[in-house]
Amino acid sequence: MINIAIVGLGFGAEFIPIYQRHPQTNMYAICQRNVENLNKIGDAFGIEKRYTNYDELLADPAVDAVHINSPIPNHAEQSLKALRAGKHVACTVPMATTVEECMEIVKACKESGKKYMMMETVVYSREFLFVKELYETGELGKVQFLKASHQQDMDGWPDYWPGLPPMHYATHCVGPVAGLLKLEAEYVSCFGSGTIREELAKIHNSPFAVESAHIKFKNSDLAAYVYRSLFDVARQYRESFEVYGDKKSFEWQLIEDEQPVIHTAKKPEPEIPEKVTVPDYARLLPEVVQRFTTRGVYDADEQQHLSFTQGGGHGGSHPHMVHEFVSAIVEDRDPFPNAAQSANWTSVGILAHESALRGGEIIKLPNFTI
């Protein structure tokens, strides 16, 4: 049984009951600076071990692994501290805020011998698992092009979100285009388009309303196109990815709650597109956590806590990510994505923004497979 500690209990509370029910984990401890909220969640889920100080948590020899759900600026520091304290690390996206921090985490992972997994939801969503199945069974044929977007209105979000450069939070669209064929981004070129309000733009010296990037993959004939927006763009929330093969292609629906489309080559033109229902992939999980692909947060007594419930969300990915992280530790193998892959995906966004500031200049990514 692996003793898990969850750090950050906003979004992090989503994962508590999954770890409580997973057959190979003990939901050992929780950590948050706000004592009132810490105790509220600890009481609700029956977790005795509670920390307000992260360093004290890491000093606890009973903790085997930490799952970090803290604000983005804390990800790199907390991941590095945990790896150097001999703990396995799962961390919500993105891995870090600089390429140098990404490299440092990769090195710390190698030096410590511990596992690191960036918890990228999209590559464990039912849509991604569906397309992955189409690819692995040969139905797509030869993949020719990949495309993804993540558009969201972040007005009203607190702290570090206002004015954030769109590509600094790009892993939800970079992950699926790189992850489907396990490709490594080699270089990127990105353009900024439009302008956001001056009071937002001056926070990060980032004026762009939309950033759109082309990614060239290493040792592959493939490239991908991704685009992001966070402010001052009229668009319903959308995380999407699309894959074009020579036999079949998958296109994400334009509006939430509609169906994606499969295009099949060489049919009569009106028959080429077909709307499809994406199945759930709970069957890939241990039975005791299968429910969490379609349901939100509940405690051990089946009492619904409205303050914690954020829905099955993220394409049912949460229990799949937990199971992958835990299985990698138990089987002593790299999780997907591992530290090098996480660094590559995160750095695509960081360097794409840099490219946009330089008018689309091509920027090469460092080699993280050290």
TrEMBL record:
Coiled coil: none annotated. Gene3D superfamilies: Dihydrodipicolinate Reductase, domain 2 (3.30.360.10), NAD(P)-binding Rossmann-like Domain (3.40.50.720). One of its GO terms (molecular function) is nucleotide binding. Residues 2-118 form the Gfo/Idh/MocA-like oxidoreductase N-terminal domain. InterPro entries: Gfo/Idh/MocA-like_OxRdtase_N, Gfo/Idh/MocA_Oxidoreductase, NAD(P)-bd_dom_sf. This is Gfo/Idh/MocA family oxidoreductase. It comes from Spirosoma taeanense. The lineage of its organism: Bacteria, Pseudomonadati, Bacteroidota, Cytophagia, Cytophagales.
